[in-house]
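Justification of computing resources. Each target in the renewal requires a structure prediction run like the one illustrated here; the chain below, 360 residues long, is used simply to show the kind of job we budget for.
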Amino acid sequence: MLNPGDIIGILGGGQLGRMMALAAAKLGLKTHIYCPDPNSPAFDVTPYKTMADYEDEEALQAFAQAVSVVTYEFENIPAPAVDFLKARLPVLPNDNVLKVSQDRLSEKAFFNSIGIKTAGFAPVDSQDDLQKAVETLGLPALLKTRRFGYDGKGQKFLKTPQDLINAFEEIGNQPAILEAFVPFEREISVIAARNQQGQVVSYDIAENVHKDQILKTTTIPANIDEAIAAKARQIGESVATELDYIGVLAIELFLLPDGFDNRLVANEMAPRVHNSGHWTEAACLISQFEQHIRAVAGWPLGNTERHSDCVMTNLIGDDIKERPQLLENKQGAYHSYGKAETRDGRKMGHFTQLSPRSRP
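Resulting structure tokens:
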């Protein structure tokens, strides 16, 4: 168990690392951010930082000697860096979690192995594999690279046979997975946490809307009945337990319409704090960021109950220019990530509009 003043190492210096560092400071813990990007927004809020490549063993050694435990803000950390660090101190969540979540094929197989339903899927390692997978799964379908895809990157939606032409080349001739189209009613997500003592908690279920394949809004509570909400929470908590997970994780789920035997289908897992959990910062006593820090520090988890309904909106690109109006809103919480450069599709901050809690 860490004590106030101890240092948590964080791999990755984006907005998630920034918000974890802020949460750690609130608890009296310090953070050391490791990231190769000199413009990392997390560098602004931490007392210690290392700007080095993830392959730099000299820098990794110094980092390991300076911290008590290591966690991360993104899942696509090079495996050699994790192996190097875990030989010297705890890396949480564990590296098995990364092995599952870094590969979409492994992730889908893991879900199925513990009884969680997914869309039909097939591995694709060539254009010929793609043709055969389509014959099995049908169209429409989604072709995705197995690794390193997020916010719609490394994906191609296939509607007609003509879309298959050169599709494998268009995603870079990389190992891929074809996923059958799921006629979902809405997308929801569960944010769960588990600590070193095996305590598991989850937040209320969020309903998500994407724009241009990037999360735009998250609404709490989701427009679902309690039986579906309970099942979603059970999925999140069972994944955390099965993986011996330490920290916060998110599971994105598709809700199918009435008439399907299994209305909840797992889309993907994020082994970290998640964009669809940012609302917890404004609408809960304990945010997902503090919950994650508590877990990796070996502390008891906090209360996940929300005090308000809310809608969290991502401020993407030029949305951040709405700051003057957002700051005038007396029922909302504005959060900027401190990024100097505004670009199309770049997450610049978020805004959470609160309203009285409508139901338990």
